[in-house]
Amino acid sequence: MAPLGAEQLEPALEVIEAAQQLWSLDDIPEMLAVLARQLTDWLAASACLVSLVDEERGSVRGRAGHARPPLRWPRNSTEQPLAERPRAAAVLTTAEPYALVGGVGGAEPLEAARLHGHGFRSLLMLALRVEGRSHALIEVFDRRARTFSEAEVRLAQALAGEAGEAVARARMQERLEDAYFATLGTLAAALEAKDAYTNDHANQIAELAGAVCEQLGIAPEKARIIRLAALLHDIGKIGIPERILHKPGALTADELEVMREHPDIGARILEPVPFFAELVPLVRASHERFDGGGYPLGTSAETIPLGSRVIAVCDAFHAMTEDRVYRPAMPVEAAISEIERCAGTQFDPECVQALLEVVRSQGWPRVTRDRVVRLARE
User: Fold this and answer.
1) Residue 158: other Cβ atoms inside 10 A
2) Please, what are the domains in the chain?
3) φ and ψ of 302, to 5 deg
4) Between 6-23 and 28-42, two packed helices, what is the crossing angle to 10 degrees?
5) Average pLDDT of the chain?
6) pLDDT in tens, 354-377
7) Radius of gyration in angstroms for the set of CA atoms belonging to the chain, rounded to a whole number
8) pLDDT in tens, 71-94
9) What is the arrangement of strands in the sheet containing 98-101, beginning at the earlier edge strand?
10) How far is it, in rounded angstroms, from Cα 43 to Cα 151?
11) How far is CA 166 from CA 65, 152, 327, in A?
12) If 0-12 CB within 10 Å is exposed, 13-18 middle and 19+ buried, where does residue 303 land?
């Protein structure tokens, strides 16, 4: 392959910059949407469509598109059998690009008819390869009867190659995330075996914390971390002796001191797992008080992570409205009054207000563990 000339250096640098943008993303659909826009803009084309390959069904379906106004891609793309698109199938099989200009030059009649049916006159097709397999079909369209130069094709291939590597990295991250969620399930099961009440308590709090996050306007990704931390905030109770954990009456001062170690124990359980790094400070601070009277660190107000402040008020509300071995559940209205009374001392006033708005508008949610884990992954 001949080296790039001086006149091709600037486009090459633009491709490098575009590749860096792709590598900065973690969401695969977003990557494909950005790629479609990049190719449309860089090649000064009319539109670009990225279609995912379904090997089992032998088809492709549009996943991300970009078009210059007034053109628009429909939101819902139909499935296209590759048997009806032999040229596209060949591109995906060989990874060799294919260009069609004005429906001439020995073009495939089916591709030419499809091109003209959409109002285009030129087409460049590329394969997006991920881990050695064709993951998607890239189609760049133009209303003009134009050719794509050798340099344009080479650089478009280079960008598609970078996109494939970025998608592969994101897929690996997804696999790691699945493994970490399996770890989470194991931890939750271990806690359930230790204390069935504690596990159900965590499920309820995770659901309630998610609703409070939404009420507070917390970004979805941050809310997801808070839900996970709520689910595991009492995991450190695994390290608490059962004679203390299951004691039917009030704890002695020494027993209370042991019980107060569980947030730090939980944080140390989660610390070795990289995926749980953002959960660690939330779990450790989940029993701090807004006025500084909590444990294990005695931090106060905004020095307590917001997620921990959310978990603390949800934890207390649930504890008051559920039966315990040493007392019956408190009526919901009485629990609301107590939460309100403790705003500004035990709890963050803004989190209190959000919790009360959720409870009064939605009622008291009760869900299964499977639903909480699903919500945490959204």
Assistant:
1) 15
2) 6-172 (3.30.450.40), 180-377 (1.10.3210.10)
3) -70, -10
4) 160
5) 83
6) 999 999 887 764 433 333 334 344
7) 28
8) 877 666 778 999 989 999 999 999
9) 79-81, 59-67, 47-54, 133-142, 122-130, 98-101
10) 11
11) 18, 21, 55
12) exposed
- Type of residue at 20: Q
Q: Give this prediction's pTM.
A: 0.55
Indicate the burial class of 302 (C-beta count within 10 angstroms; 0-12, 13-18, 19 or more). exposed
Angstrom distance (rounded) from CA 182 to CA 371:
15
Phi, psi of 123 (to 5 degrees): -150, 140
* pLDDT class of 23 with cuts at 50, 70, 90: confident
